[in-house]
Amino acid sequence: MNTPLTLFGNHPCTARIALIGAGGTGSELLSHLLRLHQALISLQQPGLDVTVYDADQVSESNLVRQRFSTPDLGQNKAITLVRRINLAGNVSWRARPQHYTGEFLQADIVISCVDSRSTRAELHGAARQQRWWWLDCGNDHTTGQVILGRAGVLPLATELHPELMDTALPDDGPSCSTMEALQRQDLFVNAHVAAHAADLLWNFIHTDKGIQHHARYFSLQNHTLSARSIPV
């Protein structure tokens, strides 16, 4: 059996997390991060310190698949979600209304919930230099994956799947309507990605368990759930 990996070993500290992207997956995952934080605190362990990055404003097409409602229209996604989380959880997490463009991140774990190949290319370069743990979350219409890596320790998502940062390939542009958004990504596929990411993080940060698998893949095709994982 492989030796489980944990974030801080036997000396837990507050985990600094940078969440890049607050859309379909990111908005779901942020709620899970609050629950994870509260669970750690209840176990008398250090919690989470989260910073959310997203420059986009809430649009009409976001209202069904993302955790926004009509009063949020026109507001910045990161600011809206973090304000709500801070009130609900009595935390002081931060919002950065900007896209990630390669700057230095003071983080132990960077979580990317983006659909931009250029952003993943920026994160790939930064991850190799700054050597934080990188949890990349991705999906298409009915499939998804979460991959935790660290340069020199575990393969990065972009090393396992170079096409994720191949800027010669097209990105999905923003959806103009709810119908178009649902044609591109099924209604609950982001929720599945977020749940897998949160569960992997929980085992990674919660020092009693650790992780023995660092990548998970799932499919919801043909109304059937199938999944597989890659061991550490």
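Second entry:
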Amino acid sequence: MHVKILDEKVVARAKARGIDALVYAPHFTRLSAINARAAAFSDDDLLVIPGRELFTGDWKTRKHILALGLSEPVPDFITLDGAMTELARQNAAVLVPHPEFLTVSMEQPDIERFADRIHGVEAYNPKHWPHQNRRAEEIIRETGLSGFTSSYAHMRGTIGEAWTAFDERFETTADLVTALREGVPRRVMHRTGIGHRLRCLAEFAHLGYENSYGKIDRLFLSGTEPTHPDHIAYGGRFDDISVY
């Protein structure tokens, strides 16, 4: 349901692991680029679905949202309320990745407040520690929302370590978006054993890179983020809900 990387090796590994579809949602990448790359790597054996993991709020109050089925671009660094309103306007499928994880996630009160606009909460994430996965399952039980899982792969080797299983095949992005919005039953699946645990630990360790050099590069070396609401690509549409 959610990967950060996409290339020929990712596609080959997904197919080898029996995955039928990947949601490709890289950080800080505009929707047009995600759409183009997803289309380029889709074929008869693997559907690549474009998605956006939105960074709502500022760096101190980040709450991530995973959106599928967007017809228009939505930037990062806008208010949570503003993002949820825009996603509802576009009839997107709205998912909560890694709930209550570190300082980058929606918490249970947020999820409860927007429960009528949320179509799934991540029950299992390889970057989580076991107690965090248990907490995610607890949130799902208490809110009554559907669960899902993903490899959340930032590294190729994590592809196929966790997946969401449906009893039917979806041929298009629109099919999956409709299924998620309608609460079609799904099962949370993941591999087990020492190999899987080592993969999970490697993904967790990758946070060190993301929060050190990766963040320095984004903030100081690369200029304005491509998904910043001030970027010309958004035409000032989100100025009233921008947090910067």
